Amino acid sequence: MADEVSVLVEGGKATPGPPLGPALGPLGVNVVQVVQQINEQTKGFAGMRVPVIVRVDPATRAFTLTVGRPSVAALLLKEAGKEKGSGKSKTEVAGDVSMAAVKTIAEAKGEDLFGGSIEERVNQVIGTCVSMGITVDSEYPRAVL
User: Fold this and answer.
1) Domain 72-144 class?
2) What digits encode the pLDDT tens for the residues 105-136?
3) What confidence tens digit (pLDDT) does each residue in 8-52 have?
4) In whole angstroms, what is the distance from residue 40 CA to residue 2 CA?
5) 7: buried, middle or exposed (CB in 10 Å: 19+, 13-18, 0-12)?
6) How far is CA 22 from each of CA 15, 31, 62, 87, rounded to the nearest angstrom?
7) What is the C-alpha separation between 116 and 80, in angstroms, rounded?
8) What is the model's pTM?
9) For 55, which of 48, 63, 85, 99 is 20 to 30 Å away at the CA?
10) d(CA 42, CA 68)
11) Is 99 within 8 Å of 136 (Cβ atoms)?
12) Could you tell me the residue ranges of all domains in the chain?
């Protein structure tokens, strides 16, 4: 049975320090190699927190990485060019994203979202926008879908 370590790291900026180093050190793997591979695989998500699972075979000390995708909220914030959403989503607007960006995020998240069709996934992303105080420029929403 492989040992497993799950962490959230900033894309392309993992370090051998906490939380990775202390979790991986006792498993006997080369922490620097793990960090280098994580940084290589997550560099496209710079500025976003990315879920990473490191599985270590205790017999051989070989490891495999599973890099997830950032959350819908993180992708929306990056698209809107903001660091955080509105604390008062019903009265304050934190930013604006295009309907095309919403569709791109829905496609990128794919099976991570519960909806089966693209319209259901787009609606879920729009729901996240509403809860974060992000408006969607929907001049022609059906033309994008």
Assistant:
1) mainly alpha
2) 988 887 676 667 888 889 889 999 999 999 99
3) 998 899 999 988 889 898 888 999 999 999 999 999 888 888 899
4) 23
5) middle
6) 11, 9, 17, 34
7) 26
8) 0.71
9) 48
10) 9
11) yes
12) 3-67, 72-144
